[in-house]
Amino acid sequence: MTSIDLNADLGEGFGRWRLTDDEQLLSVVTSANVACGFHAGDAATMRRVCELAAARGVRIGAQVSYRDLAGFGRRAMDVPPAELAAEVAYQIGALEVFARAAGARVAYVKPHGALYNRVVHDEEQAGAVVEGVLLADAELPVLGLPGSRLLELAGKADLPVVTEAFADRAYTDEGTLVPRGREGAVVTDPGTVVTRSVDLARHGQVDARSGRRIAVRARSLCLHGDTPGAVELARRVRGALEDAGVRVEAFA
């Protein structure tokens, strides 16, 4: 039976402000990408999400980013490699404290936003992220886009790599994500998102923005938690996957 992990970005609030419905999404996903305070999240939020995830058996991942609260981590930044490596390790370490307190561990690392897109092609920034992961834990899996420099360098450093796909993001013909600032970068029709999810899980394929069918073989599927109706859409996606004979489970 085909299987796939479902991950979502969680803990993306700050203080009294909350963006994601963490509790409800944790009833659907198998892995939680928890914001570590640089693009969103704070100590209390990280602790709460780790406790909820641990109680429900959901794997906890560190969603590391550029230091950009005002821009939600989606603005391009130039950070010196040594500084970026230290900040990645810092974020993982902060989340690990709360994961351990909840009886769990940080189980993987995933970059967020501008950093995620940058390390697809930028070898220097990708290397800095890998160095930061190694500083924190030399056995942590790294979640990223298939064919990215990040996963290539992580593999060379003997870190486990996990390929990821997006049902609600438009793809280029080269298999990269269409930048968010461009029209049509985010797929908003729920039915289309559900259909794409099953296609990705069952066939490892998706229609690019041009209409061309491209291969995107992934072990994990991301469900964005900051979109309207995210919880209901996540439930529909999981239900459709299971109806199609796909086993939904955390990646090995």
From TrEMBL:
Pfam families, per the entry: LamB_YcsF
An example Gene Ontology molecular-function term: ATP binding
Keywords: ATP-binding, Hydrolase, Nucleotide-binding
CDD domains: LamB_YcsF_like
Chain segments annotated as coiled-coil in the UniProt record: none
InterPro entries xrefs: Glyco_hydro/deAcase_b/a-brl (IPR011330), LamB/YcsF/PxpA-like (IPR005501)
Catalytic activity: 5-oxo-L-proline + ATP + 2 H2O = L-glutamate + ADP + phosphate + H(+)
Annotated GO biological process: carbohydrate metabolic process
EC nos: 3.5.2.9
Its job: Catalyzes the cleavage of 5-oxoproline to form L-glutamate coupled to the hydrolysis of ATP to ADP and inorganic phosphate.
Oligomer status and interactors: Forms a complex composed of PxpA, PxpB and PxpC.
Entry's family note: Belongs to the LamB/PxpA family.
PANTHER family: 5-OXOPROLINASE SUBUNIT A (PTHR30292:SF0), UNCHARACTERIZED PROTEIN YBGL-RELATED (PTHR30292)
Protein name per UniProt: 5-oxoprolinase subunit A
